[in-house]
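Preliminary data (for renewal application), iron/sulfur cluster complex.
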Amino acid sequence: MTPADTRHGLYPHLLAPLDLGFTQLRNRVLMGSMHTGLEDGRDLGKLAAYFRERAEGGVGLMVTGGFAPNIAGWAKPFAGTLSTSGAARRHQIVTKAVHQAGGKIALQILHTGRYAYHPLAVAPSAIKSPISPFKPFELSARGVERQIRAFVNCAVKAREAGYDGVEIMGSEGYFINQFLAKHTNHRDDAWGGDYSQRMRLPLEIVARTREAVGSDFILIYRLSMIDLVPGGSSWDEVVTLGKAVAQGGASIINTGIGWHEARVPTIATSVPRAAFAWVTKKMKAEFATAGITTPLVTSNRINTPEVAEQLLADGSADMVSMARPLLADPAFVNKAAEGRAEDINTCIACNQACLDHIFVNKLTSCLVNPRACHETELVYHPLTDSGAPKKRIAIVGAGPAGATAAAIAAERGHEVHLFEAAGDIGGQLNLAKQVPGKEEFHEMLRYLRRRIDTTGVRLHLNTRACAEDLLAYDVVVVATGVVPRDPKIAGQDDARVMSYVDVLQGTKPVGRKVAIVGAGGIGFDVAEFLTSEGHSTALDLPAWLAEWGVADPAQAAGGLAPQGPQPPASTREVTLLQRKRGKLGDKLGKTTGWIHRAALKMKRVRMEGGVNYERIGEHPEGAGRRAGWGLAITRGEGRADPQWLDCDTVVLCAGQISQRSVFDELQARGRIPGQDLHLIGGAFEAGELDAKRAIDQAARLAARL
Ligand code: NAP
Ligand code: SF4
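Predicted structure:
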């Protein structure tokens, strides 16, 4: 395939159509499968609205979140299933919405096997997975046959429902993968044993599905190209399966990276962009040698049209899969096609409102786009549509909450004045972007700046608005954010004690031995910042692969380096402390907390909970210890003799408190007739403050002003 076409502007490869013979895709963007929570239950109307918006946004082919082919394959009790004609009829609302918008959509068939979170789980062998409490039942040979028939039936029902195809989920450690790997398949019948027997299951599923659905139906197979688990498939095995699946009837082969139980991050923000595209590229070379032309899709941490175009241009793949980037911006493809890439709301790979929600059974959304999966309820109606009056609105504070509210209100047609005391917008985002592995925050700032520019917000930088300045507005929104909490530790007024703001802004020198007071998100970020010493492996793929012990799967089965993780050395000694007992970082993201903890452990950061901060200062020589300076702590209730942690810098990361003096001042004056006053973001509530809540609150307010 040589897709380069000069008609497609800046992204000729990305925007070139893909001809599958019986059908054409309008471009090379595959919206990867992502469970949203809208799949579960009988009413799929909201799922239809969600996909309609993405089809209108220009995506070439979309894949739904996983639907189980039967009850045994459920991810959790009563998960979305497609196995009957009645269910197929209910799905038509989705397929019709997508087709009306000019899009194409495939249904993902997901059988979770031993990953199932319910007691009816089945697997090749009765071996419990590390990520589900339920031990699966070992399938009999007839049971295996029943699962194959369920896959085929599901595909037939998908066609009946109007889908353009199906994706057979063969990666991420789910049911099919469990048959492929020796460590999860201990069978000695025709479905176990050597690789030719272990790979029979996917081949039977693909062949029988193709036979049942006919030749004019898209069949995507998601192939686990690098398992990232001990005992994972060898490269020879992956290539053998890939070729056999292609020759056995798959229309497209998608790339799966890592099993869910893998201890290597694969999609978090600290993973370099396109970190695994080289694996798909290896497969492309194998296919080329064998004369196989089945299109290959590459995946993981591809979030801009530039990166996607580059991958296609350098021959890494024939299509790119993006899932979260299309949650963040449904119009991603159209904006790229119109040469407006700077208007794309970029996914920052935080997982905070998408995957973290799914793991606690909450509906998915998106931190940077609260409308995702809420398309029918959060609508930004222009004033011209609703006939609502145009208002003069003052928004104080241009952090994520203020900037979001301003852009939405202005876009709807209001006159919006945004006041910011600093010389730039962004508030706390300007600190977050300094943290190695959080570079994507630059994109969020770029997008917010662009929104302010294009929606006509009148931005007043370096302007500290006071109550007096705000009296003449119809609406005042106070979004003045937070200030660091003062932990009031005796001796903290020493020059060697500083706040995280000083550290992340680089305004004060930090020593080699550091104690960090407070182990919330910011304590972890500061520890990462200090031990990375200016080098971010998120921007250095070879260093990142070494850090997490990822190897070429052709050299090491499963792609795990035999020498294990090799983190960059840090000469800083950092101790991270909290008063609560128990594990540090337990409030970090559900799907990312383990990565932060593992990264700091690799850099030998000492972590301790259950401490009391007694004082900071000089201590005299004492039992086996020289005189020095540091932080005195005690442990537990007893408050026995303090132990001195010798260090040369103490960083305070003790959380934040709301900054709301303007709001209090306005309230103290009494209500101004005709004026509405609102408080949002960190200024509204600092505890557990995060950008997700701030942006969501701002968007919902701006939608109804
Ligand atoms: P935080 O998460 O609330 O953590 C504050 C830390 O300070 C806690 O470890 C707390 O633990 C300690 N602390 C509270 N009061 C203290 C006091 N009086 N004296 C000493 N220590 C005290 O706040 P944050 O770290 O500033 O983060 C702010 C927000 O940004 C949070 O919602 C956080 O989740 C979010 N954030 C998230 C990430 C992420 O990676 N997802 C990264 C950065 C920030 P003890 O009370 O046990 O000592
Ligand atoms: Fe991307 Fe974060 Fe939005 Fe998920 S919540 S789609 S990771 S920006």
